[in-house]
Amino acid sequence: LLARTRHDIAGLHGAWRELRTRRDHLVNPHGIHLRWHMQGHHSFTNWCRGIAWYLLGFSRSFDAVGVELAPADLRDEFVRAAEWIRGYQNEAGLWHAFVDDPRCGPDTAGSAGIAAAMLQGVKLGLLPMAYRDCAQRAVNSLLEHLTPDGLLSGITQSNRGGEALQRSNYRVISPMGMGMLAQAVAHLMSLQSTA
């Protein structure tokens, strides 16, 4: 955003370089990883919340800078990743904590982030309206996880507890996913007002 405001071309190139670095280190044939370690291995492969952050990094960067200024390879990666993750949405409209492992329970925070990124992609014209419907299913399910005082339940613990805790069906009530859910709802409302 600063680079665009200041007409700083080098800053824009730096932002695109950062997204490419993330793509090049965090994506491989096994999926999308939360972390790449200098020793050459990955951790938290196909972890829902990590995928949400990955997608939001792209969609929010495109929105801040202007999708028309985003390089084609990065727009293509966002579309590819959105298409890939869409295939893992479960019947309830959510994504499992490790999206490719249906034995794990869903993670509402990660699901909210994925829905928010998809909806932002629709608003930016990168994704077709079918993704709005996909995200709407997620939001409908997520709203059922709100407590009476507005907290989101069904969230996996902090990842500091390791992958085993994330893979368990232990879930908490936490504000962790509320911002992502708020983004998703705001994008839905915006899309409905322009329809």
Protein model, in words:
This protein has 195 residues and is mainly α. It has one domain (46-194): Alpha/alpha barrel (Glycosyltransferase). 55% of the residues lie in helices and 10% in strands. It has a 3-stranded antiparallel β-sheet. The chain has a two-stranded antiparallel sheet with strand order 4-5. A hairpin with a 2-residue loop joins strand 1 and strand 2 (31-36). The two termini are 28 Å apart.
Short description:
The protein has helices at 2-5, 9-26, 48-65, 72-86, 108-123, 130-143, 163-167, 178-194; strands at 27-28, 31-36, 42-45, 152-155, 172-174. By secondary structure, it is mainly α.
Mean pLDDT across all amino acids: 92
CATH class: Mainly Alpha
N-to-C CA distance: 28 Å
Please state the structural category.
Answer: mainly alpha
The biggest sheet amounts to:
3 strands, antiparallel
How many individual helices? 8
Binned, the helix content reads 40-55%
Strand segment tally: 5
* Outline: globular
Strand order of the largest sheet: 1-2-3
Radius of gyration: 16 Å
Query: Uncertain regions: pLDDT < 50 for 5+ in a row?
Result: none
What is the CATH architecture assignment?
Alpha/alpha barrel
| Share of β-strand residues | 5-15%
Q: Spell the H/E element sequence.
A: HHEEEHHHHEHEH
Query: How many domains is the backbone divided into?
Result: 1
CATH topology (fold) name: Glycosyltransferase
Summarize this structure as a short list of keywords or feature phrases.
single chain, 55% helix, 5 strands, globular, mainly alpha, two-stranded antiparallel ribbon, three-stranded antiparallel sheet, Glycosyltransferase, 195 residues
